[in-house]
Write a structure and sequence with these properties.
9-stranded parallel sheet, mainly beta, 12-stranded mixed sheet, Pectate Lyase C-like, 3 helices, 37 strands, 2 domains, 9% helix
């Protein structure tokens, strides 16, 4: 009898959970399932077009005693094994979900964009702490209520090697992103809109890049708050109707081929020039009544085998605008190039540049007939290096 009861109970649990796992890929369709399977070394696929209310699932698990209370001021000095990897933190009007130390975690939608919601206005939708190799793809994240609030949508705290692709972050969250103490964060084709106060805070972080992103209809206070950070670059992004001073920067931040409309900033009067600590290169300022379109010319080169006439390189795409050139006979000496026609290479910090100072050269990429090429020129336009594609 006990065996039959156990089998029946197990079958009921499997039916209720309705999550399937293949290898390290786990498919979920409810918010409770999503929280249950969070962890390292896995891909979580959200397979429903119904919004997942994270707050409701947290509250249920707290009532059941199945979700641990996290430490609001967690420090990395504590052994990670002493802290639960998925916890909650109480805030003024609700709880926040914290994901800590979950390396090699990918969260994506099965099709279209999956939606993750938070009810409390004083809670982030998601917080990732001390995670490595994190990837978020095709997700919509936001709050169910509009109004005043104290938290944003997505917070990354001391995370390394993060990629965010094709996501949508919206208010009433204070801001779309908080990136604090992070290294190597790349955000591609993501929209941040309708946030109550700021657009983002980037603090004490290095190598943060936004490519082909849209920032629109965020209101009040400074919009781009970036401090104590290095190598922060916006390329091919649209900034539209951001109410409040656009730049709140305490060090140089680079904007390449970006488009600005209805933003509180100085008129763009040169092809390459600073606005305080904001360095604008080949950017466009649209009139208020113009259509909100991004104007950017992307490099027309393809990954594969390249040569400079002396040695061969394996070229791989690092993001929408950067490419990594790896000598085939010296795989430990790669270098990166931002292949837009701008002085975009001065602030590239990784991968490590070779002895030649490619970092201060202008990269000109394009196609000559059927051949792809990249040329490196000095400030006077003199050709110094030339690469061409020779195979796949």
């Amino acid at each position: 009898m006990k065996l039959k009861t156990y089998i029946s109970t197990l079958a009921m649990l499997c039916l209720t959970f309705q999550a399937s796992a293949q290898g390290n890929t786990i498919t979920v369709s409810t918010a409770a399932q999503f929280i249950d399977v969070l962890g390292p070394d896995r891909t979580i696929v959200i397979a429903t077009d119904q919004p997942l209310n994270i707050t409701e699932a947290i509250d249920q698990k707290v009532a059941e005693g199945t979700l641990a209370l996290g430490e609001t001021y967690y420090t990395p000095k504590e052994p990670l094994s002493t802290a639960a990897q998925v916890t909650y933190a109480p805030n003024t009007d609700g709880n926040t979900l914290q994901v800590r130390g979950c390396d090699r975690l990918t969260i994506r939608s099965a099709k279209g964009r999956a939606t993750l919601l938070a009810t409390p206005r004083y809670a982030n939708v998601l917080e990732f702490i001390d995670c490595r190799d994190l990837k978020l793809e095709n997700l919509v994240m936001g709050h169910t209520q509009d109004g005043y609030c104290d938290k944003g949508v997505l917070e990354l705290d001391r995370c390394h090697h993060v990629t965010i692709n094709d996501c949508d972050l919206y208010g009433c969250g204070t801001e779309g992103f908080v990136i604090d103490g992070c290294l190597d964060v790349t955000v591609n084709r993501t929209t941040v809109h309708d946030c109550t106060y700021y657009t983002m805070h980037v603090v004490r972080s290095d190598q943060v890049r936004f490519n082909d992103c849209i920032f629109r209809d965020n209101r009040e206070y400074d919009q781009l708050c970036i401090s104590s950070s290095n190598d922060v670059v916006f390329t091919g992004c649209l900034f539209d109707n951001l109410q409040g001073p656009l730049f709140a920067l305490d060090d140089y931040v680079n904007f390449y081929c970006c488009t600005f409309k209805r933003c509180e900033m100085e008129p763009i009067d040169s092809e390459f020039g600073p606005q305080g600590y904001a360095v604008l290169a080949f950017c466009t300022q649209l009139p208020d009544d113009a259509p909100s379109t991004i104007k950017v010319k992307k490099p027309a080169i393809r990954p594969g085998l390249w040569t400079d006439g002396k040695q061969q390189y394996r070229v791989t795409r690092a993001d929408a605008y950067r490419y990594v050139f790896t000598p085939t006979d010296q795989p430990d000496k790669p270098f990166a190039l931002n292949c837009i026609s701008a002085e975009a290479n001065e602030y590239i910090l990784a991968p490590q540049l070779p002895d030649e100072d490619f970092s201060r050269l202008v990269a000109d990429a394009g196609r000559n007939g059927a051949a792809d090429y990249v040329r490196l020129l000095d400030d006077g336009g003199t050709l110094l290096y030339s690469f061409k594609r020779i195979g796949k």
